[in-house]
Amino acid sequence: MTITVRLNHELRTFNTDAQETLLHLIREKARLTGTKCGCDLGECGACTVILDGRAVNSCCVLAEQVNGREVETIEGIGTLEHPHPLQQAFMDAGAIQCGFCTPGMILSAKALLDHTPHPSRADIQKAMSGNLCRCTGYTKIIEAVELAAERMEKERG
Q: What is the pTM of this model?
């Protein structure tokens, strides 16, 4: 089956089969390795991407289901020279240790802030509840999301 997807704001076409996951398509066919394969069961959040504005576990979505839809990965939100405010806040708050869970964490946080620019701490905790981290604990991660929300609010004016 041939599918077309808007991947990181660029229209891309891929050949896929009925069993292929979005995670496999992103990593193996699109060669975007920022999205990590953790548990491959939808439990850890390492493979989180944004699908049509919602954070999803890409290991639980079939590639054919994204035909005609929009997918955003960590590679699509910032660069080394111009990181997204969330990426910068994670660095500034010390919310990154090994970094394996970080892309999924940042995309979960981005999906939250895109829809809720002024989240409460409870909103942040709920949005991040599907992402597991073995290194940092969650205090600095929550603080990074709060910091990014403040900075993004200032940028909006």
A: 0.94
